[in-house]
Amino acid sequence: KSFGCRNLGQPTSTDYSWPDYRLGYPALHCRACGSYPPLFDEQQFRDWLSVHLSTFATEKGHFCPVCYGTKTICYGHNPQGSQRIQCRNCKKVWTPKQYQKEITPPEIIETVALLVPFQGASGGQKLYVLISFDALRGNILR
Questions:
Q1: What's 132's DSSP letter?
Q2: What pLDDT does 60 receive?
Q3: CA–CA separation, 116 and 114 (whole Å)
Q4: Are 98 and 83 in contact (CB under 8 A)?
Q5: Which among 116, 120, 112, 74 has a CA at the least distance from the CA of 93?
Q6: 10 Å Cβ neighbour count for 85?
Q7: Model pTM?
Q8: 3-state class of 57 per DSSP?
Q9: Which positions ≥6 away from 141 have C-beta within 8 Å?
């Protein structure tokens, strides 16, 4: 339903006509605002919600993807070093998906030349080292 419709949140209204198949699937037509919200079969909605919640739980780790319990414990690490989690209710063990942090390019790059004493082919030989770093964050680039 659209936010500005007078039937928003009203399950029964004389403005509703259903089922309307104009969009190719059964929908509710609201004559007040002209919207066509889809009609959901309760079992189909529960199946969809179950898949959605399981995927969300597996990726985020906030609750169990099997029983949706929120009581979890840290359960060691996987071979890649990521934290594993175990549900205290059903004992399911899983690893939440690890998202890569967004890499922001440096805005200001500074380069410093260093002369380092070096015991090479001759005693007076010097080693020149160039270090480039992000001047704002302090990260060494090369």
A1: E
A2: 74
A3: 6
A4: no
A5: 74
A6: 20
A7: 0.39
A8: helix
A9: 106, 109, 132, 133, 134
Sign of the C-alpha dihedral computed for residues 51, 52, 58 and 63 taken in this order: negative
Locate tokens 């699937």: which residue? Answer: 25
Ordered by start, the domain boundaries in the chain are: 1-39, 42-94, 101-142
State residue 44's pLDDT score. Answer: 80
Sequential pLDDT tens for the chain (142 residues): 677 888 887 878 888 888 888 888 778 888 999 888 777 777 887 888 888 877 777 777 778 888 888 899 999 999 988 899 999 999 999 888 776 667 778 888 888 777 766 666 666 667 677 778 787 777 777 6
Question: What are the two backbone dihedrals, phi and then psi, of residue 85, each rounded to the nearest 5 degrees?
Answer: -125, 145
Can you say whether the dihedral through the CA atoms of 9, 11, 15, 19 is positive or negative? positive
How far is the CA of 107 from the CAs of 39, 48, 71, 101, 129, in angstroms? 51, 44, 43, 18, 23
The radius of gyration of the chain's CA atoms, rounded to the nearest angstrom, is 30
